[in-house]
Design brief:
This protein has 2 domains: about 1-230, no CATH class; about 230-385, Protein Transport Mog1p, Chain A. Strands 7, 8, 9, 10, 11, 12, 13, 14 and 15 form a 9-stranded antiparallel beta sheet that branches. It has a 3-stranded antiparallel beta sheet with strand order 1-3-2. Helix content is about 40%, strand content about 25%. The protein contains 10 helices and 15 strands. Strand 5 (about 85-90) and strand 6 form a beta hairpin. The chain has helices at about 15-25, 70-80, 110-115, 115-140, 145-150, 155-185, 195-225, 245-250, 310-320, 375-385, and strands at about 5-10, 30-35, 40-45, 50-55, 85-90, 90-95, 230-235, 255, 265-270, 280-290, 295-305, 330, 340-345, 350-355, 360-365.
């Protein structure tokens, strides 16, 4: 068997006119299709001659037996008309004919339009999936965290947006092309072949390649992040923090860490992104002693953002406050030096401070009535935040 020459298909499989035009152009150069593997066409080289190629839509799906090759009856009918089956490509069977006098493989364009019905229906379904992934899915899952994701994970949010938009664009391009082609076929017009169809196929294939490249980059970035231990144990963390801790609230003392459990952790996560030079996710559960006497035992959760722009800090503050357990009872505070301040009271005391590009959301949970209240420790939170 002669060695095959491999070339990448410059157009997606559903672009009938582009594929047929390209294959006929390759035959004019002496390259004749023999097989298709992973989007690459294997050609046998011979003397150039005019050959017509046609793509015939399969009757089933990829789960059906009649997807991998046409049945014997279809092959016999095609061979009787002068057309030889070559190989499958995607949801189509490729036929070739080097007899200029042989009739067209599809003598009735309306019948060809009916054959495309299943593939056209699948294309409409892909548009629906693309709309869900690009529009409804973010509205359902990300709408309450979009600005925090933009600040803490901008590369992943951007990657998701690019993959979604490109996927939706490809689905729309496929559906519109098949819809227009089917309409022309139902009107009795035969498919058009030529350089224009080849150029359109190159553009569609480029869009598909861009989606695959972004998806691979996005996946690699996710795996790269998973491989980095971002969460650090708080007892071993020695760098300064831009907000008050339990030791600061108690006015100093010896810290005794609470035992780790399913709901209790002492950790800090620090990240730096183009949209937020500093992001802290802080959780502390500890007992603070002074001269052997317990002065404070509480839980402390802090979300701290140093945003790149003041408008981003405003949106972060709005999102953080909306996530509070008792956000509807939050009361504004008029504190000098701050652009915005809010608080809630009760067993889960919450505080939000914003100044310029910095915003901090605090959840302070004292264990007993003997521990300082939020009102008592509020000046410490404000002083450290402004500092």
């Amino acid at each position: 068997m002669a060695r095959l020459l491999w070339r990448p298909f410059p157009c997606p499989d559903y672009d009938l006119e582009g594929c047929e035009s390209w294959l006929q152009g390759m035959a004019a150069k002496g390259l004749y299709l023999r097989t298709v593997r992973f989007g690459w066409a294997g050609f046998a080289k011979d003397v150039p001659r005019p050959v017509r190629y046609r793509l015939n839509a399969t009757r089933g799906s990829v789960l059906d037996d009649d997807w991998s090759a046409p049945d014997g009856e279809e092959r016999e009918l095609s061979a009787a008309a002068g057309w030889q089956y070559v190989c499958p490509r995607g949801r189509f069977f490729v036929y070739a004919c080097d007899d200029a006098q042989a009739p067209e493989l599809h003598t009735d364009p309306a019948v060809q339009a009916l054959q495309l019905k299943r593939i056209r229906t699948d294309a409409y379904g892909a548009v629906g999936s693309g709309l869900f992934f690009a529009v409804l899915h973010p509205l359902l899952w990300f709408h309450s965290r979009v600005w925090r994701m933009f600040a803490a994970l901008p590369q992943y949010l951007l990657g998701f947006a690019l993959v979604s938009v490109l996927g939706l664009g490809l689905a729309l391009a496929r559906a519109l092309y098949l819809r227009g082609l089917s309409r022309r076929l139902r009107r009795g017009q035969a498919p058009v072949h030529g350089a224009r169809q080849r150029r359109r196929g190159v553009w569609l294939q480029g869009l598909q390649a861009a989606e695959i490249a972004v998806l691979l980059f996005y996946t690699a970035a996710l795996f790269a992040r998973w491989g980095v231990p971002a969460v650090q144990p708080l007892p071993a963390y020695t760098d300064p923090l831009p907000f008050a801790t339990l030791a600061d609230l108690a006015g100093g003392g010896a810290v005794e860490w609470e035992a780790e459990s399913r709901y209790i952790h002492n950790t800090v996560t620090v990240s730096h992104t183009p949209a937020a030079p500093a992001v802290y996710d802080f959780e502390q559960h500890a007992l603070v002693r002074q001269n052997g006497r317990a002065v404070l035992r509480a839980g402390l959760y802090v979300d701290y953002y140093e945003a790149r722009w003041p408008w981003l800090a405003e949106r972060l503050a709005r999102e953080l406050r909306a996530d509070w357990l008792k956000s509807e009872t939050a009361a504004p505070l008029a504190l000098p030096g701050l652009d915005e301040a809010w608080r809630t009271d009760g067993p889960f005391c919450q505080l939000l401070l914003r100044k310029g590009c910095r915003v901090m959301s605090v959840n302070y949970i004292p264990v007993s009535d003997r521990d300082p209240t939020l009102t008592q420790v509020l000046p410490v939170f404000v002083e450290r935040f402004l500092a």
